[in-house]
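Rotation project, supervised by the postdoc (A.L.). Task for the rotation student: set up a whole-complex structure prediction and record inputs and outputs verbatim in this book. Inputs entered:
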Amino acid sequence: MSLFELPILPTLGAAAAGGCASGGCSSGGCGTGGCGSAQAERTSENSRREFLKTATTLTLGAMSLTLLPGVTAGDDMLPLPPPGGDGHAPAAKPMYGFLIDTTKCIGAGKCLTACRVENSVPEGQSRTWVERYVHYKDGRVEVDLVPETGYAGSGEVQPAAEDVLRAYFVPKLCNQCVDAPCNQVCPVHASIKSPEGIELVDTERCIGCGYCVQACPYGIRFMNHDTGVADKCNWCYHRVMRNEQPACVEACPTGARVFGRIDDPDSEISRRLATVPTNVLKQHLGTLPLTRYVGLTDEVT
Amino acid sequence: MEFHALHDAPFIFPNDAHPVWSIMIVLYPYITGMVAGAFVVSTMYHVFHREALRPVARLAVVTSLCLGACATLPLLLHLHQPLRALNVVVTPSPTSAMAGFGFIYSFYMLVLLIDVWLIFRPAIVERAGTATGAWRGVYRALALGVVEITPRAAEIDRRLVYALSMIGIPAACVLHGYVGFLFGAIKANPWWSTSMMPVIFLTSAIVSGIAVLMLLYLFLCQRSDMEPDAECVRSLSRLLWMFLLLAVVFEAIDILHVAYEREEEWHVIRALLSTQLRFSYLTLQIVIGSILPLLLLPLPAFSGRLGAGFRHSIAGVCAVLVLVQVAAMRWNVVVGGQLFSKSFRGFVEYPVDWFGREGLLAAAVVLAMPMVLLWGAMQLLPVWPPSLESESGAKT
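Outputs recorded:
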């Protein structure tokens, strides 16, 4: 609803017409229309009354504007979704999805560097990371983070192959939940969903309260040390809007990260989703993530 | 959600290494709780006519106002963008529980401010007439230009105080119940996510309000060489014992329920309570802060044989213990909930800084501020009740 469609404006219009209409003077010019002094007095009283009415309407109207979702933050910063329903053409709004194939990830760490460079992520914080799960023959399960250099260049002592039962890598990034808790809890509309369904942070509006960080069940959000506002993976929204792939997808040497339109049945992600069983993280929370996984095990949280 | 930290090598998510909510977010519900609790005590006199609480009724409402005036301080110190703080009221998100803060807090403070003004209006008007120099101007300003009181006006004031106190009770409950809801509605955190949280916060708020009033009353009496009113201390002790019992029972029900059901979140909570929170929860909150005062409070609350001095000393000690309990509870909720990673595979540390915006020193200043304000208010307003003679004289 635009400002001009708001119901307060007809009232303002009536008020702007002045007390004359209500004072019985159709010419609309009491002061100059030769009315008697009593009428002038009445007109003056009416003007005062109208002024008070206008002021009250304006004040209450302005106050109520802050509560209207359509006038609140962020909405005006994003392209509006194309019209749908009401007899109009069906929406051509693209819907995106992300597929992680844990069976393909080799823990190269290329995605991590690509993300950090692309999004200027401060050291010690991460928009995306890769977990390595090592199941030992004695029943232990150990999890650690894949270094950005990959294990080869890290100098870390690796588990002895004869002790290991199986191992796999699980990349993590924003789950872009359809029912996102981070979006729900943000008190100032700084967590916004793009028309394509991608959860974004309005850095100009964020007050840095950290409530969204607490609300994200996946530990994806963080308070950016450099900017002092909430930060998170946004599937490289700026690249996606240029019809490019997210930086991590482009950098992955094995195709473990697949990004694309899930509303296009011919896209690679749609074909994979149609043919391979997939799962989501922490399904019991009901956040409805758009990031789906192939080969997710019970150990992964 | 099996918690693996005790068995396997710990693993924490990279963004979980440092708790986001600091000691300032511990202080926020601590202070807000005392605001609500102190107000509830004042309503015990103004609404429920509990005459024994008359000596502290005015002190309660002024204390609540002074604490309330400082309630936003820890939040501002915590916000990474404090200059944008007003966005919460200018562009509030209707889906966010936190967005309600500005409105709930403002409404409550408005009610409280008018309440205080009406309660102290006779004193303000009297002093506007008798004070000299700059003080006269101050009191005339506080009287808002009305410098005489008729019996009819006094009666209207009394009724208004009654009505405002009636409005203030649910407002105070909402103010603090809402703070509990902020935590209880976070499903990402098994230590926070419980519908009992608002109830637990509310009862512990009342407990902390009674305790801080008892302590202030005993301290101020001692400083002024006044004998504390025995019935007042007894009544406060009874209230404190009753609400502490309620708070402990609610907290126990919550924990026992999770423990008995042994659903997946219990593994996280059990690990948390047996390691990171072993001292602050089991020792401070349960043993020292709950069991001990529950055992001791019946002495000043119900015993008639012990000497007044001894009973008052025990009451003071219990008030301190209860304040420790509530502080520990706030710490255990706020910080405790951030001491495990959302990977549920490892703990993190919360290093408390001495200095800085969210350090211990700043926290001490935040805690001291309401007391400084209270001292100032006591210079300005008579927090002790007027004598019965003068009151009956005013009514005739």
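Student's summary: Chain B touches chain A through 47 residues (CB under 8 Å).
Supervisor addendum: The two ends of chain B are 70 Å apart (CA to CA).
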